[in-house]
Amino acid sequence: MIFVNSVRMARRRGPRSLSAPLRISSAAAATAALAIAAVLLLAGGRDDADSAPHSLAAIPVTVGLDARRPGRPVQRRFLGLSFELAALPRISAYANSGNLVGLLRSLGPGVLRFGGVSADTQVAWVDRRTPVPPWATATVTPSDLRRLGRLAARSGWRVLLTIGVLHYEPIAAAREAAAAKAALGPRLAAIEIGNEPDAYASHHFRSLPWTYAQYDAEVTGYRRAIASAAHGIRLAGPGVSGSQIFQTWGPGEAAAQRPWLLTGHHYPLGCHQVPPPSIQRLLSPEIRMLEAQSLRRFMTVSRSSSIPFRLDEVNSVSCGGTAGISNTFAAALWATGYIAQAMAAGVAGINFQGNPANCRGYSPLCAPTPARLARGVLGVQPEWYALLLARHLLGSRPVHAYVVSSGAPNLVVRAFEAGDGTLRVVIVDEDPLTAAPAAVKLHTGRRYRSMTVLALSAPSTTAGTGVRLGGRSVARDGSWSEPSAAAKRASRPGSISVTVAPSTAVLLTLPSSG
Question: pTM (2 decimals)?
Answer without folding.
Answer: 0.89
